[in-house]
Design brief:
5-stranded antiparallel beta sheet, SH3 type barrels, single chain, 8 helices, flat, 3 domains, alpha+beta, 224 residues
Length: 224
């Protein structure tokens, strides 16, 4: 009976790990979709302009799926605008404004870093996935290197050091920064995305390369 309950529990958790990230993503897109429909849907002022344009071009005032197309177009347009100089400046001002707003700033900055780390190929927010002894000897924590140029902090420590961010799982919106000597770190052969999955799943999602006993020492990056 215990084995059956354990199997049901583990299977249910695995289901949640699949459903929750996908569900959250689609929920955000749905909110954007609803916002666009309220602004540009059928019957709205902007929607009437779209309807008139469609009537002149394709002979129909509306058609199913136009809300999805508008959602995709809006996301694409925002990305396009932020690639030009004026758009980048406007985004920087908005980013600084939200980042300096009390209560909102902590959540905003953390979520932004996570999303950039996962989605952006140019992101350097999290550079490497590392493991080190913390909070006591013999206990190990997985962290993410965020800065290798510490200046005066490094001179205080007295040796080459890095800044490492630790998530306080299961809450991904908080964590702590630890300054550690580089020699105390074990660099894991994981992508940032794999490291985030490992940590934010509370250790439930283990990278397949870790489960392969034949991997051995290849799991760890060789230090120069």
């Amino acid at each position: 009976m215990r084995r059956l309950l354990a199997y049901v529990k583990n299977t249910f958790i695995n289901g949640l790990l699949v459903i929750l990230p996908v569900g959250f993503t689609f929920y955000i897109l749905w909110l954007v979709y609803r916002m666009i429909l309220s602004f540009a849907g059928r019957g709205s002022e902007f929607g009437n302009l779209i309807g008139n344009f469609l009537m002149m071009t394709i002979g129909r005032r509306w058609f199913p799926g136009i809300g999805v197309i508008l959602t995709f177009f809006l996301v694409f347009l925002v990305g396009l605008i932020t690639r030009i100089y004026v758009g980048r400046k406007a985004y920087t001002l908005l980013d600084n404004l939200i980042g300096s707003t009390p209560l909102v700033n902590k959540m905003y900055v953390t979520v932004k870093q996570i999303i950039n780390a996962v989605l952006s190929s140019e992101s350097t927010t999290f550079r490497d996935v590392v493991m080190f002894e913390y909070p006591r000897r013999g206990a190990y924590t997985v962290g993410f290197v965020t800065n290798e140029n510490l200046g005066e902090v490094e001179s205080i420590i007295g040796e080459e050091s890095v800044a490492t961010f630790i998530f306080t799982t299961p809450n991904p919106l908080s964590g702590m920064v630890v300054f550690l000597p580089k020699d105390d770190l074990t660099y894991l052969d994981l992508t940032v995305e794999e490291g985030l999955r490992l940590v934010l799943s509370m250790g439930i999602v283990i990278p397949s390369k870790f489960l392969d006993n034949s991997v051995g020492s290849k799991v760890l990056k060789a230090e120069d």
